[in-house]
Write a structure and sequence with these properties.
single chain, alpha+beta, STM4215-like
Amino acid sequence: MGLRLQLHDILLDITTHVYFQPPSNIRMEFPCIKYERDGSSNEFADNASYRNAKRYQVTVIDRDPDSTLPDSVEGLPYCALDRAFQADNLNHWVFTLFF
C-alpha cells in the first residue's frame, strides 16, 4: 500500500468523511477532512537525498466550532496548525502535515 493510502486510512480513523483533492463537483459531507499534496521536504548528506517526506495540507471542516477533530489531527506526528477560519457557516482548521 502506498504512503498516501496509509495516510488516508489514518485520517479515516479520525472521521468517516475523508476527501483527497476533491473535484469541485463533489458534494462533501460534514464534518470532514480534506487533504491535498502541497510539497515535500528533502534532507541531504554527501550530495544525495536520504530522506524525503511529502507535505500535505490537511483541512478539517466542521459546523461545530468546538469540534474535537482538529485536536485529533494536530496530534498526528509532524503535524502543525497553520491557520483557522470560518466561511459559509463552516469552521476550517488548516494543518501542515509531513508524511
